[in-house]
């Protein structure tokens, strides 16, 4: 069985801004790559969010076949790749101790 590996995050810039810091704390990080098996087409989507305190941040959603990921800035210094987990709505993601709905 032939397995194709696809490049999911080729130099994807991730804004490291969560609801807590100041605009002066904005930083950018790059993820080199993340490969997943399969022939399905990669679907990417960036969604901008705004907190009650006015802070803005962007979450990048990556879907390929049965794999669904979300790249979420959880603080000014930490961005994690969340994996989709089983839930009634199908929109729940987890990364270690963190949950993203």
TrEMBL record:
Chain ranges of the C-type lysozyme inhibitor domain: 49-101
Signal peptide (residue range): 1-18
Family matches, as Gene3D superfamilies: 2.40.128.200
Keywords associated with the record: Lipoprotein, Membrane, Palmitate, Signal
PROSITE patterns documented for this protein: PROKAR_LIPOPROTEIN
Protein name: Lysozyme inhibitor
Native organism: Christiangramia aestuarii
